[in-house]
User: What shape does this take?
Amino acid sequence: MENNNKLGTKLTVHYSLIQAIYIMGYCSIYSYAAVFLLARGFTNSQVGLTLTLASVLGLVVSPLVASFADKTLKFSLRTIVSFLLAGMIFFALLLFIIPRTVLGVGILYVILLTFFASQIPLLTTMSMDHINNGVPINFSLARGIGSLAFAVLSIVLGYLVDDFGAGVIMLVNIALGVLALGLVLSFQKAKRGLETGGEGEGQPSGLLQFARNNKRFMAVVASISILFFSHVTISTFMIQIIENVGGSSADMGMANSVAAIVELPAMALFPLLYKKIHNAGLLMKVSGVAFLIKTVVTLLAPSVFWVDAAMSLQFFAYAMFIPASVFYVNEVISGADQNKGQAIMGMVMGISGLLGNILGGVMLDSRGGVPFMLTVGLGVSVAGFVMLLVVDGGKAVSSN
Assistant: This one.
């Protein structure tokens, strides 16, 4: 037990560094996507279409990569993630040097986002495999440290873009990818069910069989995807929201950093909360309420200060949802299908992006602008929250 605790502390530090680099990558690729694409001559609608296509491709590729990872003995999770990181670095380099052509930039950005999104479930499982083997990695603390790193980069990148232009976004992403490669390759490998004989775990199922065997889980994922509609539109089009109340790229960086800073204490405290409640489904519903309140405050915000105030609600919203969703999968999905379960839960953002990015861009280009987008987003998210209450109204621990 003592050796496991020491190993858990060591791996928590290492995994926290991985999360820090990875979430900073999310900041540069996703949070500044509109900034980068608008600077390359895109319209709001084209930004939305590009991110929607990335969501569609991610919805197809991510579960296939996860299913392959569940079944393969030839390649470790570290190897698969490293391959995806190498692809991401390559396409970021192409985006930095490609001429100012909307079609070419759009295609490359879609591929870049797909490589990035496919890593999400595998990185999560890298830690959960150790946890399920009795090594106490503090996943939520590591994820919270990632949020703090996001906050720092969000502020810095906002000023860098103001001073040097949007091209710096890809340079930052390339540097982060190189650092991530070293950290992932040196992370200690955990024994998985397939390698130990999988006693009591069964064999990994195919995607269709998985969906049939976990109907309620699939309905929960669908409802959260609808609930997240407003979160996606706010995250993707933050620069337009900030400019609507008189702010700049630097103000956008500050707003994103406020959201990220409050995530660290929330995620650090999550294990204590989960230990008392031990119902990840209930905690996801609590975070859903916070998402709705955040959208209302953003809609009514008369100034940058109030947008920042709305972002502070991430403490109860996104910061609670991320670890809750990971532990929800761990509660309801068998170990043999963990990668698929995490991948499908990770599809929440992809499905929301599919709905929110293109519609958000179209709504922004309409007469209604930002207020219209946020009002529609609030209505859609309320419908998703009601659906979540209906489909997951009982105990969280069930797989049907």
